[in-house]
Amino acid sequence: MFSIDGSAVLHHAFNGNIYSFNEARFPTNQSGLVTSRLFSGVPPFITGGSGGRLLHGYKDTLAKYGVSRLRLSHARAMPNTSMPVALVPAYNPLGGPSILTAADTSSNVYCLITCQYENMYSKIFIGTAYFTGIIALTDPALEPTVTGGKVTGCSAVPYTDGQAPM
Fold first, then answer.
1. Which domain holds residue 9?
2. pTM higher than 0.85, yes or no?
3. Confidence band (pLDDT; 50, 70, 90) for 20?
4. Do the beta carbons of residue 20 and residue 2 sit within 8 Å?
5. 10 Å Cβ neighbour count for 84?
6. Cβ atoms of 80 and 139 closer than 8 Å
7. From what superkingdom does this record's organism come (predicted)?
8. Residue 166 within any structural domain of the chain
9. Which of 41, 54, 128, 166 is the most interior residue, by most CB within 10 Å?
10. For 53-110, what is each residue's pLDDT tens digit?
């Protein structure tokens, strides 16, 4: 999975985070963080990582802030407030390749938001809307509970997996 402009590739790490970075500019091992760009699922749905973990967001932070970190966990170790999600290709209104969105088991659809950090790979979040999600994720009050660090900026980066939209 990669950004439509080819500037970044999505990776998952053992810590459960989903990261986005340019592989030509950054090594795939930053400060001992081992990542993989291998995800799994049944096309066109992407449901997890290569190690058998499942994609999920957090329903409590989505309800409270309209955003959640997109993460991976083993099915038996899913947090109580988590909800499984799948990445699904959607129609691109500008034409071109499909754009990945996240969908939960209740058919709610979420946008992918990329947040940049100082001295760290960009992390991927899901949101109920781009504009309000970006505002929420740049709020310093969410650092300890949602973003996990100082965010320097967030944006709506369109990612694709090359699949046709649903």
1. 2-160
2. yes
3. very high
4. no
5. 16
6. no
7. Eukaryota
8. no
9. 54
10. 999 999 999 999 999 999 999 999 999 999 999 999 999 988 889 999 999 999 999 9
